[in-house]
Amino acid sequence: MEISYREAMTDLKNIVIERLAQLGLGPVEAAVQGGLERTYIVDIVDGRKKSVRSDKLAGLARALKLDAQALARGEALPESDNVVPLPTSELTLSNAKMAVGRVAGVVEAGAFREVDEFDQSEPEEIALPRDELFPNARQLVFDVAGDSMNDLRPRPIFPGDRLVCIAYDDVEHLVELKSGMVVVVQRERDGGHFREWSVKQLELFTDRAEFHPRSTNPKHKPIIVRRDHEADDGVTVAVIALVRRVMNEMPGF
Length: 253
Hints:
Layout: H1 5-23, H2 27-33, H3 40-45, H4 54-64, H5 68-72, E1 98-107, E2 113-114, E3 125-129, E4 139-144, E5 162-167, H6 168-171, E6 182-189, E7 194-204, E8 208-212, E9 223-226, E10 236-247
Parallel strand pairs: 1-4
Antiparallel strand pairs: 1-3, 2-7, 4-5, 5-10, 6-7, 6-10, 7-8, 8-9
Helix pairs in contact: 2-4
């Protein structure tokens, strides 16, 4: 049975509450000891926090005096002097209920952005439930801007939503693209110096693939790719991710 996002966070919440009681610590005191924001553990206990970044997971383990790798697996294993802690980027989550997802960027139809080839910043990573169908595939997270999919059925995709996706390169040999799939499409122009990421619904025909917006806004038009996989204006088009889940948080917190 697939583990839902809510179930994974509930497991973590229960571990945190029980461990705080064992240590005789309050959530604010523990957060300070772990180098976290003062309200970080309070938000987990109260159920307000819906995701935990991998770098924060290491701090949370420190605060609770638990082994970070075990905590990532949903286990409350006390830290040991014989365990050499791994850097956050090397946390092993392959057998865990939780996995690391990389926040790739923004999807927005019609928004070509300049590609910074020299960007050395570390990508944001968050903890996510492991995808049961594709446990070895990279999970990519995209933040939604614009209204190009606000009429998708049965569930619209709205600005502010966060998409949890599977990298298509990792599952291309396993998954055949089919009409009806919701995908992240990459278009590049000017030799790859400018790039657009957008969400579309795929429609396949014998001689072409059509990537359709599902919007109440008539300005959004489909991307049509002939068998040569190149649009008429020379812009290259490729599917880079398959949308698996849509997340959002209620405002006001």
